[in-house]
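fwd from M.: "can u put these together and see what the complex looks like"

so here's what she sent:
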Amino acid sequence: MSAQLAQAENKTTENLHAGVPTLTAKQSPLVQSLLANKEKLLQAVQVLPEGHIHVVLPQQMKQNIAEMRQIFGEYGIEPRIFVSHKPSKSNALIKQARAENTGLDVSSKNELISALKNGFSGQNICCTGSKNDDYITLSIQHGCLHSVDSIEELERYIKACEKIAPQEKRNVLLRINSADAPYGGKISRFGIPMCDLEACYNLLKENPNVNLDGFHMHSGESDGDLRAEELDFLLTLFKDAYEQGFSPKTIDVGGSLLKNIYEKIEECEAFVDHLSDALKNNKETYTWRRYGYSIAAGNQNRVSGREGLMGFFKLDDYGPCVKKMMNVQTLYSRTSHQTLLECVFTLALEPGVSAYDQCGIILFKIVDTRFNNKGEHMTVLDGNVFNLSFNITEQMADPVLLTEDEDASETFSTYLVGNLCTDFDIMVKRKVVLKGKPKAGDYLCFINTAGYTADFHDAPVHQHPMGQKIVAISAQDGWRFMSEDRFNPYLIEEGSIL
Amino acid sequence: MIYNSVIDMIGQTPMLKIPADVHGLKHIDVYAKLEYMNPYGSVKDRIAYGLMKDHVEEMKNTGKKPVIVSNANTAKAVSGISHYLGLQPYIVSNKMPYKEVRNQLKFLGAEIEELPALTQCPNPFDPNDMIQYAERMVNQSPDKFHLIDQFGDSNNPKIHFETTGKEIYDDLGDVDYFFAVLGTSGTTLGAGNYLREKNPQTKVFGVITETGHNAPGGRSKSEMWEVGIFNPDHYDEIIAGTKQQATAGMRELNSKCGVMCGPTGGLGYHRMLEKLREIDKGLNGEKRHKAVFIACDRMEPYMDYVQKACPEMFEEKPSNQLRVQTLPSDKVQNAPSVDAEGLMQMFESDTKPLVVDTRGAFGYSIGHIQGSINIQDTFLEQMLDNGKPFPQNQPIVFACMRGDVSTRFAAFAREQGYEAYSLSCGVGAFVQFYDAKKAVA
């Protein structure tokens, strides 16, 4: 035992762990049930090859889609849901989305191929994002709904349609740049500036085989008032388009229907409060090398940037946002949901985070534990920062310790470090708080990782293995585990695996 | 009272005693410092002029523009005062969400620079962060701009020490409890220090908003760190409140005391009373205690805020008279209806029906039943509530999108003696049926 370790071991638990802010991850009942059966879960993962494990929960996606339909259904709206493919590479979840009769929003040729492979027909696929010629070709061949991102892309698309499907109608959405939203949206690299809209109309008038099916805007905003303004703005575009002789039907408002991933908002507030105080007054931040996330102490004694961090902490799920969107006063003094219903317009959604909410967890095996020269406890995981796309989600919730120790209730704070031979491999840039003392052989479980976190960036750095995926099913006789290939959502009915 | 300049009217605001039967406290007198009586409508008039006054001559002589980072009361005050003094105010703000505010500031002569910032709050990593942008702008062109920094300038509390605090003391003498909502925290720091200097027993309470709630001009606990002059140790207690409490406070002050203050005044008042009720219980009546709160600004700009916080306040109350909305459900359920085929038969009969499409004008313009007229349900409701708008010698068929709204109108029209029906299948299904039949024919 090193001198430092011995010194640190002599410190009381209170000294080591007092005052470290806790951020408890929210767990759905399904996730709670799975973790309550940790013996079965650990048995299932222990037979898998080395490396971290993504456990996916397709039944959760079924619930998420049903919830989304129910929330919009309160306004009489049956949204056309295009589950976004990009947050996840899980085939099981994509199969589940197909079984729920959603569409799929794809962002590349290979995602489009994945959609087709998993049973989606072209009519139920919306092609978005930047597009090369192969992607456009495949989109046209399969008659996908095609979200056009610029007038140049529309020109390319029309030319490609003339070659690939000259006698057939193809449907496009015109994606409008969100910076042109009336409230002054964020500058975006995506979407057609309003000043190009007239030219797009002219192109479409000259090429009647390419049908203007509607408009699309994905601002990334989650504020209900702003989203309501966006919807009002898009409906105004519909009126203009009808006056120009088009008959658009689909109004695609994108995703950003967010869910809270933390259990207690008070903990989030306390975390921001503590970090602000610590950065301003040179106290212990409990973050790696005094990392401030979006917060920094600056001129005139000010500490700013809290909104960047608080943006990840949501008080409400997206229900109140939908309420504002659906009740905004729009054309001719009608509410948006009245207009959608009365005009028989289709409201299209591209949920990413909300569709995948609580649909996955990641398990990392603990390799060893140690203290650094400051006496700070570190837990070394058999995985690394490239296995967690926290730079997208900045997820900071505390993971759950899965240990066979009976007495694992005392809180224990530690830094999580990865298996890379680089100094930057700190898995979470804050000291996390665990229930129980971690030791080699235990597992750490990160919650709510299916959307964006699990495999958005997963990469075999140092030739370490990529994450393995297994499917967890809550069956009548307990939890069952299977490979993604073997998972068939149609063979699972009310807890029975057929 | 005659003033020679509007500047002279800043400060010396009235102190209103809140009647005991309103607050119900046994041992404490409560006073409202009516800061909305300042000429530009808020407590911010004090710091706007206070932070400018030593630089006015220099700005006039050099043509420097006073720069303020705000889109609210401080912007209004700086703009108004600058305009009056012949200076050119320059506002740096994120995109202003309300056109009304922008127009008001323009009317007051302001040049406005709206930044496409990533967030509404200060963000050190955003090159368009409005505070850093303004600081950079002033540092790069010190001969053109003068920054008025309400968040970081220690003169902010000094002004409140010298004016607000002194005025309160001059009116009331020793104060026991002082409450205000924390925005820049200048008022509670400055006036609080003055009152404590006179009476070290004065307790100072800061009121903030709960997470997820807002009161324009107020801040939540974590937002307070954005204010350089904020010092949490200054307060005996920091109390949080909701937007509903802010609205309730505004309402009570207005209805019972005639005070026309905005949400920050309402929130301060509401949270103060709750705290004082606790304190009042522990007092023995040996002496009268005095509490003061700040009514910061006027209510008029905040009706949208109030409506969002308490939508029920603005709901129309149904009258006792039988109206479309209040029709008993059994009558609605029994309203006669026709399906698509039934309506076709009616069209082919001698007494052709009048079809009234109750949808909005946009839906009607996109597609409707031939010969139908469009009266949107809200207008139709008013028409039917106020009389009999249709000829009574012709059947009326009400049509909406799904047959639900039209049922209510058919039932009500029946009560008025019409031969009225609801198109049960809705307009969309009828048009499909009609098109299919035409195609077969």
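replying to her w this: The longest strand of chain B covers residues 28-34.
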